[in-house]
Design goal:
By secondary structure, the chain is an all-alpha fold. The chain contains six helices and no strands. The chain has a single domain, classed as ACP-like (Non-ribosomal Peptide Synthetase Peptidyl Carrier Protein, Chain A). The longest helix is centred in the first third of the chain and has 16 residues.
């Protein structure tokens, strides 16, 4: 029964659209989307070159908890993933590189 339900769900238009979006999304697209969000929400829309892919955001307190919540919501909406509470931490969200790897792993 469970297999039948999973099969039926995976063949619905919504599931196919979400899966197609995830599989079409490559790491460069994830990186540019995350970078744009951070520049708009932390750096006032100005890219002065200070934001590197390995810039610590949470541990250096560049990104506060409000921006982190907005980021999580943005990532869930944009990439059609669900982030669990235990996953929303410095290990997965401290740098752009970590976010790219984390989001791309959620799409597999």
């Amino acid at each position: 029964m469970r297999e039948t339900i999973l099969f039926l769900y995976s063949h619905t238009p919504i599931a196919n659209k979400q899966n197609a979006n995830l599989f079409a999304m490559n790491k460069d697209e994830i990186r540019s989307t995350v970078r744009a969000f951070l520049i708009d929400n932390i750096f006032g829309g100005k890219d002065d070159g200070k934001l590197q892919d390995d810039t610590a955001l949470i541990s250096s307190r560049i990104m506060d908890s409000i921006i982190a919540l907005k980021l999580v919501s943005h990532l869930e909406d944009k990439f059609h993933v669900e982030l669990e509470a235990h996953e929303v931490d410095q290990d997965n969200l401290d740098t752009i590189n970590k976010m790219v790897e984390f989001i791309s792993s959620k799409g597999k």
